[in-house]
Design goal:
two-stranded antiparallel ribbon; 4 helices; 207 residues; disordered N terminus; seven-stranded antiparallel beta sheet; 11 strands; alpha+beta
Amino acid sequence: PAQALADLEQYLERAPQAGNRAEVVELVAGLQAQQAGLAGPELSPGGALLALADLPAGFEVIPPQQLGLVDGSEAGQGLTIERSFAFGQRQPFELVWGFATPFPAQIYADPAARLEQLLGSFLTGLEAGVQAEQTVLPVPAALGQAAAGLSATFTVDGKPTRLDALHFQAGITEGYIFAMYAATEPPAAPASELAVQLHQRLASAGE
């Protein structure tokens, strides 16, 4: 992929007026995203990203900004996004995204209530909040006692859809992860499994 990317970039430089330029530009962008995912998780003192290699084949990197996730911006409920990530699969449809945020100065007693408010804001953005049916999502023991999980089922374009959400604490950092997929199919990348990986990396980054 690295050599193919270099060749295509050189082609764009030499043939700026090529009739197939748009297609080549799109291909270059895809290869760049693929390389970014294969490079491994990006670690920083405050958080860690999941990598494309952590997901099953068929997923692609999605710029988090396309989902409104901008590092350093507010995510609602007093949360500041420190690091974010997003991945998507076309067939069958599945969208995975999440972020890490510094542990808030004001401690809250009920993590599930905070997650419910955040999940509600996402559902409102999807215009599915009124019709959504929410249930408790089992939380892996590895995420600790301060973790919470919720699942919402709703309809998008006449298709039953499910959105799973998990929240956990790892040292001085909190992690949030979401997975949206067709309710008629099991998820290819369950949010609970990805949350465990993210928790481990956030905990390691904070040591």
